[in-house]
Amino acid sequence: MTEKILARGAGKETVVPGDLLLAKVDFAMGHDLTIPPAGRIMREQMGADKIWDPERVAVTQDHFQPAKDAASATLGRLTREFSQQMGIKWYFEVGQGGICHTVLPENGLVLPGELIVGADSHSCTYGALNNFATGIGSTDLACVLALGELWFRVPETLKFVYHNRLKEWVEAKDLILYVIGQIGVDGARSKAMEHTGEALKYIDMEARLTMTNMAIEAGAKNGIMEFDEVTKQYLDGRAKRPYTPVTSDPDAKYEKLFEFDAEKVELGVAKPMSPDNYAPLSEVAGTKLDQVFIGSCTNSRITDLRRAAAILEGHKVAPGVRLIITPSSHQVAIQAEKEGLIGTFLAAGAAWTTATCGACLGGHMGVLGEGEVCLSTTNRNFPGRMGHPKAQVYLSNPAVAAASAVTGVITHPGEVLSKMPAGIR
Amino acid sequence: MTLPKTLRGRVWKFGDNIDTDQVIPAKYAIYSLDEKELGKHAMEGVPGHETWASQVTAGDILVAGSNFGCGSSREIAPVAIRGAGISLVIADSFARIFFRNAINMGYPILQSPQAAEAVEEGDELEVDLEEGIIRNFTKGDEYRAEAFPPFMTELLRMGGLVPWVRKQLEERRQSVAARG
Q: Are residues A278 and A154 in the same domain?
């Protein structure tokens, strides 16, 4: 699938892994940390005065916005001015967008068969929608904005097949943490991760986005999934352009095949201080926490918040712990309000914030101090990611995070809620 | 800015899987447009290296293990290292976005498992960028770097993606003008 999309972009019949090509980009994204340098490189150094297609670029104010300090306000202003001057159609102001990797899929801007780049490492998220999507740097983005093209090395593809179904309580997050634990943070370095198998049929689009989101944590260039009924339903009424899905050929070549029995995957976490430091939940249960963070492009969409709210309903956050909940987009926040989830969070004693990347990258609204221990629904826990280099960060799914906030220690959600109510996913 | 043929410098050694949050903690992203300021905080997130940048002499060489620069796509990671005065990064392997960013900036990097294994902190190296040969004066050894595909070598030689895009834009303008 990855090879077909790159070949299409490069105007070639076929390509093979290792080929270097110049390919046309279908959609590009930048945000408040990457647009200012990209805009400057494009205009002042490359000498371009307009962008290739204002309808195929999205810009979000999400990383350090609402501005956390004066310097961030400058970055926000440069991002805003550049977007206005270039006439960028998909500009998302503070309070109207949220985290890029939730905003783009929910607005139907990243579609099957497309070649998408984003100046953010988690741009691989979009691949759950059957496209090739990868993270790039600021000079890369400047090149794309100026030309609508970029150089790519065609990656080798690793195929991941998930048999059977995930068990009760076990989420897509647990599955991907387990996989990264098996292959390591460089296990898919520069390669494509193609996810397939029976288990995916029962994993909804939001949870699929959680899986492709973390491709970069295994070092991958992109994560990609087949187009199916789940993809189609998600895109109906949402897609902003016509699209053509891609499928893998029956005789497609893979560098390596990995097979997992989804039914055997347990609830798990990534322990400090690396996303591949997997442990089953039972091994770390009881670990005392200072902060619980439910947020980020990985696990803070509406389905994630529903599960967290189901756990928190009628409970209080344990003394000595703070729970911070950051929806991943403004639309998610609006939906959470409609469903009464925000009331549940506030009654439980959680801090509810505006949609932003915030604490995930140690930006603002939940930065950790020296020696603090945090359980987080985010994607990476390298030293210093969420604040002080000596803070300890565990990664988990939102239900585990919510249950742990109630008890103050890492806890199985089944200890707080006997069963996830039907219909909540 | 084109690359010199050879570089000479003293080695700073780092381990495997050094991620971008260690190279330049996200809080310094507010200095995205200021290479010097970023340089002052390079590698600050690596335990024991809080004041590392102040000890670097311009021209020093950074040698690291596998998957160097994993994590974020922030281009300020190679920018910060360059800002600190490091002339070249050699690693057993690079994470892909760090790799792209360095090539796009026209900033020299070399992939050499041999050198990453043998070189120690403080060694004096001379590196022939065109030939991909790394000489270790301290140990009297010599290592090979892996050759890059021609397009990447060309980008590095030109000074990165900026001059390449300038050239493309110029060609487009000319073809529009020719069509009249």
A: no
Measure the CA–CA gap between A104 and A330, rounded to whole angstroms: 12
pLDDT in tens, A354-371: 999 999 999 999 999 999
Distances (CA, A) of A130 to A12, A36, A208, A294, B47: 20, 30, 11, 27, 40
Residue A25 reports pLDDT greater than 60: yes
Number of domains in chain B: 1
Question: Which residues does chain A have within 8 Å of residue B165's beta carbon, measured at their own beta carbons?
Answer: 46, 48, 142-143, 146-147
Q: What average pLDDT does range B10-20 have in this prediction?
A: 97
| Closest by Cα among A273, A269, A292 to A282 | A269
Peptide bond into A273 cis (omega under 30): yes
Q: What CA–CA distance (Å, rounded) separates A134 from B145?
A: 27
Least confident of A199-213, A354-368, B110-124, B165-179: B165-179
Contacts of A36 in chain B (CB under 8 A): 32-33
Answer whether B97 sits within 8 Å of A121, measured CB to CB. Answer: yes
Inter-chain touch B17–A37, beta carbons under 8 Å: no
Domain stop point among A225, A260, A295: A260
Summarize pLDDT for A197-225 with one digit per residue, the tens.
Answer: 999 999 999 999 999 999 999 999 999 99
Domain extent at residue B67? 6-179
Q: Do both A20 and A169 map to the same domain?
A: yes
- Dist. CA A417–CA A399, nearest whole Å: 10
Is residue A166 one of the residues assigned to a domain? yes
Instruction: Calculate how close chain A gets to B130, using CA atoms only, in Å.
Output: 20
Banded model confidence at residue A378, pLDDT cuts 50, 70, 90: very high
Whether the per-residue pLDDT at B4 is higher than 90: the answer is no
Q: How many angstroms separate the CA of residue A356 from the nearest CA in chain B?
A: 15
User: Which chain B residues are Cβ-neighbours of A75 within 8 angstroms?
Assistant: 30, 32
Q: Give the closest of B101, B149, B166 to A46, CB-based.
A: B166
In a domain, A276, yes or no: yes
Rg (CA), chain B: 17
Average predicted confidence (pLDDT) for chain B: 95
Model's pTM, two decimal places?
0.97
Range of the domain at A78: 2-238+253-260
Residue A324, min C-alpha distance to chain B (Å): 19
Q: What is the CATH number of the domain that holds B148?
A: 3.20.19.10
B-chain CB neighbours of A274 within 8 Å are 17
- Report H helices in A236-350: 281-284, 302-312, 330-338, 341-348
